[in-house]
Amino acid sequence: MSSKGCIDIKDQDGYDLEHFVVPPHYEKDLERVLVPYGLIRDRISKLAQTIAKDCQNPVVACCVLKGAHGFFAHLVEDLKKCKNSKGGSIPLSFEFIKALSYENDQSTGNVSISLKEDDLKAFKGKDLLIVEDIVDTGKTMVALVEKLKQYQPASIKVVSLLLKKTDRSNKYVPDYVGFAIPDLFVVGYCLDYNEHFRDLDHIAVISDHGKKAYAV
Length: 216
What we know:
216 residues; alpha/beta; 7-stranded mixed sheet
């Protein structure tokens, strides 16, 4: 696994919940905090600087919904402050993509992607930056990138806040990664478990109690 200087989090890393502000309705549903909110924000600022140095042209930033919307908002905020490879600001436009592959805590392997044909055709000749919350098996992202290639963009780069270290991976690695994490099911910072936990600021490991409580 390789990407541009990601932070590698080990299996036993993390912090006791008592050291952080956690919504009371989730106290029994979390095992530990894996990545605190402050570290997430600082890492995103550094990712923005790294991405900006690689930019030469206007960029279409594509947010993969729903989990990436918090990451996307903070990344774009930081990108606006950065200088590109030519020393200028980066012209940005936005697109929003919905890709679904999870049920409970497992990737189903069936990827549903919602994109309008007119929006896809508009990608021709443009530099795309796909913004994702987490790459797990890699199946969803590979399917999305392959679909976008059909519309002849000038380039496609992918940034993911998290990359899961799992034996189920197809070995796909994004161009930019915030954190490489153990093979654990994580929630928070807009990552969900059946639409719950998006309101948790930190990235945390869900407990067995949480999995049972919010299973569908």
